[in-house]
UniProtKB/TrEMBL annotation:
<dbReference type="Pfam" id="PF04300">
    <property type="entry name" value="FBA"/>
</dbReference>
<dbReference type="GO" id="GO:0005737">
    <property type="term" value="C:cytoplasm"/>
</dbReference>
<dbReference type="GO" id="GO:0036503">
    <property type="term" value="P:ERAD pathway"/>
</dbReference>
<dbReference type="GO" id="GO:0031146">
    <property type="term" value="P:SCF-dependent proteasomal ubiquitin-dependent protein catabolic process"/>
</dbReference>
<dbReference type="InterPro" id="IPR008979">
    <property type="entry name" value="Galactose-bd-like_sf"/>
</dbReference>
<dbReference type="InterPro" id="IPR007397">
    <property type="entry name" value="F-box-assoc_dom"/>
</dbReference>
<dbReference type="GO" id="GO:0019005">
    <property type="term" value="C:SCF ubiquitin ligase complex"/>
</dbReference>
<dbReference type="InterPro" id="IPR036047">
    <property type="entry name" value="F-box-like_dom_sf"/>
</dbReference>
<dbReference type="InterPro" id="IPR039752">
    <property type="entry name" value="F-box_only"/>
</dbReference>
<dbReference type="InterPro" id="IPR001810">
    <property type="entry name" value="F-box_dom"/>
</dbReference>
<feature type="domain" description="FBA">
    <location>
        <begin position="91"/>
        <end position="278"/>
    </location>
</feature>
<feature type="domain" description="F-box">
    <location>
        <begin position="26"/>
        <end position="71"/>
    </location>
</feature>
<protein>
    <submittedName>
        <fullName>F-box only protein 6</fullName>
    </submittedName>
</protein>
<dbReference type="GO" id="GO:0006516">
    <property type="term" value="P:glycoprotein catabolic process"/>
</dbReference>
<dbReference type="GO" id="GO:0061630">
    <property type="term" value="F:ubiquitin protein ligase activity"/>
</dbReference>
<dbReference type="Pfam" id="PF12937">
    <property type="entry name" value="F-box-like"/>
</dbReference>
Amino acid sequence: MGQFLDSNRHMTTRVMFDEKSENGLIVGGKYLPEELLAEIFCYVDYNSLLNCQLVCKLWKNLIQTYVWRKKAEIIFGRSLLFDKEVSWHTYYLMCKKKPFERNLIKNHSGEYGTQKWKILDEGGDRWKVENPPIGVSPLPNNEAIFKGNQFCFVTSYRRCTKAQVIDLEIEGLTSYVLDNLQPLIVVSEWYSCRWDCPAIYECKIKLLGEDNKIIDSFEFHDSIEEEKQNEWHQILHEFKNYGPGLRRICFCHGGTDKLFWAGHYGSKMAGACVCVKIPIVQFRNSEEINMLSNKNYNAKHISKKK
């Protein structure tokens, strides 16, 4: 009993966080206004910023309610929607994964063979990668996606198809972004065939929800003949207002030649692309403008030091 009472004497009382406290604003013996501290945090790498959240309550609140979003805006060079319901973790993933304005398709033109693709059909002499494309004009040099390379997939005399599934949450897009903001999704690819053999090209993109339920889809089929041969054509489609529930995207393409020639005289394709665009910002009121002055930034801190 005596030991129990003695141990209680050494127990410390938990101190509640005081929003008016300057704890966290004294760095290296110098006072830093919260505005300046927030600006510094915006240029700290995301891993270090995670650790900074553990320093004190003030730093945690400042980083989670303001800095993560501003850091994401710096990375993308665009204003992002301000909404109290958006978790800081959403902006953290934007900083870490950078899911917007980039191609989510891996190995889009065959530089690494058929890696990252699931072969569904490989009829005839199967899939092949050409570098450069044979019997057709070079890929467009002014298209940034190719980075000066000339890789392309080519089909054979029987049906060849393959697919790639993109898990959007793994790529850094949270359910909040997908369900509520529903960012624009742009899909595209270049296709062609040889000058001496007509071919068929097909492409199908599906937006998938849980349990692979199809939310929306786009299907394209082209018979490449005569004046269409020996030229590169581009398909492009935009998905918007697709509703909540999107979690994955399936990109499937393929084709065959039309003369049943042995070898690889079928359709060619390169530059498969799935790009999620940055959601359009919508300023609803002056809440964001006043956030730092009314909530996170206490003007009393500055007046005390004048």
